[in-house]
Design a protein that fits this description.
Helix content is 70%, strand content 8%. It is mainly alpha-helical. It has a two-stranded parallel ribbon. Strand 2 and strand 3 form a beta hairpin. The longest helix is centred in the middle third of the chain and has 32 residues. The protein starts with a helix and ends with a helix.
Length: 355
């Protein structure tokens, strides 16, 4: 069992595991923390620049890596339809848990869980870089099996030297986060979650992507603005969970350096991973139909940057948390979908065959 297989085994099944990981990364993944009055204008410009560089970079790199990954989890139309509903149930459930139970114990349990998953994600992300430097290993250093309770069967474990080194790096990175909860360590683990999610998940079709984005469009509106109307004081279910959920499922950007506790802007991983699925799909489409035949990916990627920039602009003007998918969904549903339809028709007319 290689490192990537270990991730799937840890989730307890490939399809179920991918959907659970996706749900966890999107619980508070559609909220951006506003800069607020605590940060000086110059400091906030640095925060916005870091945010607008980091998120698109993760989307771009994850999309490129998805080209070389054949063994992907494919989202069905039913999954796309159910995702906002499942996400809403989990989100509201966490809101009630944090409201009526001691959040310290909940976060402690989640803390160890994300350290374990973070170890495998960091290892899987760093492995291609190690192989690029050291070359692919030809012999296995470890060849055994592990019986996991309640799993029902033994899992083979086969690790070469590169995978062992990657695992050591993963343990170090996840351990750094576990011991310090430093914002850089948080972003390391969260960034690897994003890359692995975009690399290993496929929407299956543009239709599924449109269904998912439309559902999350209304999901964001309700849980950010709708619940804010009920709760008042600029609070909402989404923001409340995001602030109480102490796990690397959001990227953190300090408003001042050195960082001060509580003075951090945040970007949920869902604002990176969900649009990243769509962007990566357009890149694979461009590559599949042939170089120069279509150029959907550049427009889709540019749309992501514009949508994220629009979120930051509105967030800065109104000094309030904004649901980024509210802006990103509209852009990714409209222009890239139109371009995909046109380019597909042109390709079929030229090649006279289906793909």
């Amino acid at each position: 069992m290689c490192i990537r297989d270990s991730i799937n085994a840890e989730y307890g099944g490939r399809h179920r595991g991918a959907m659970e990981n996706l749900t966890n990364s999107t619980l508070n993944g559609t909220v951006n923390g506003t800069g607020g009055p605590d940060g000086a204008p110059a400091d906030m410009m640095v925060v916005y620049a870091a945010l607008l560089i980091t998120a698109p970079t993760l989307v771009y790199y994850g999309s490129k890596r998805s080209l070389a990954t054949e063994d992907k989890e494919t989202m069905s139309t039913k999954d796309a339809m159910m995702f906002p509903i499942i996400g809403s149930c989990v989100l509201f459930g966490l809101f009630l848990v944090f409201k009526y139970l001691a959040k310290e114990y909940i976060n402690l349990l989640l803390h160890f869980y994300f350290i374990l998953i973070g170890t495998f994600c960091i290892a899987s992300t760093i492995l291609p870089w190690i192989e690029a430097v050291r070359g692919k290993a030809t012999t296995k250093l470890c060849n055994t099996s592990l019986k996991i309770p309640f799993y029902g069967e033994e899992l083979p474990i086969q690790l070469d030297a590169n995978e062992v080194l990657a695992f050591i790096v993963g343990v170090a990175g996840a351990g750094w986060y576990g011991l310090t909860k430093h914002w850089l360590a948080n972003n390391l683990v969260g960034g690897c979650f994003c890359i692995q999610g975009i690399e290993m998940m496929s929407l299956g079709s543009v239709f599924n992507g449109v269904i998912l984005l439309v559902g999350l469009f209304f999901y964001d509106i309700f849980w950010v603005f709708g619940t804010n109307w009920v709760m008042g004081d600029g609070n909402s279910v989404m923001v409340s969970v995001a602030k109480n959920f102490e796990a690397p499922i959001k990227l953190l950007f300090p408003k001042t350096l050195p960082a001060v506790a509580g003075q951090l802007s945040m970007l949920g991983l869902g604002d990176i991973v969900i649009p990243g699925f769509f962007v990566a799909m357009t890149l694979r489409y461009d590559v599949r139909v042939g170089k120069g035949a279509t150029r959907v990916f550049p427009f889709c990627f540019a749309g992501y940057v514009v949508g994220l920039g629009s979120t930051v602009f509105v967030m800065h003007v109104f000094q309030a948390a904004q649901p980024a998918l509210l802006y990103l969904s509209l852009i990714h549903i409209s222009e890239p979908t139109r371009l995909l339809s046109i380019s597909y028709a042109v390709f079929c007319l030229k090649k006279k065959k289906k793909i």
